[in-house]
């Protein structure tokens, strides 16, 4: 992928970097990673997972039946790992550039000439 990842996609890939997970596990992990800023609904998540599988970034790890329902686990593919690593580095560089600029701005905002005490005499 040549374009920056959207935050939900980045968080899904990040969650899968640790271990294979099933859909509802991913929903909880994405919420935890984002401090509950990103809340994925099942339909949104499974649509995203289908697109990520089609793009070769995520693979089906295994399926199992739990309480009569199919549970599918997903894992990060080698291509997904490369994409996540590239995006992480891009974001790191952006944060570094912003941090440098903000520190310069903070220093520039400090008064550079001494203030003299004024008053009536």
Automatic annotation (TrEMBL):
Organism: Micromonospora saelicesensis
Pfam family, one: PadR
Record-linked Gene3D superfamilies: Winged helix-like DNA-binding domain superfamily/Winged helix DNA-binding domain
InterPro entries (UniProt xref): Metal_resp_DNA-bind_regulator (IPR052509), Tscrpt_reg_PadR_N (IPR005149), WH-like_DNA-bd_sf (IPR036388), WH_DNA-bd_sf (IPR036390)
Classification of source organism: Bacteria, Bacillati, Actinomycetota, Actinomycetes, Micromonosporales
Record-annotated Transcription regulator PadR N-terminal domain positions: 12-84
Top-level division of the source organism's lineage: Bacteria
Name this protein carries in UniProt: Transcription regulator PadR N-terminal domain-containing protein
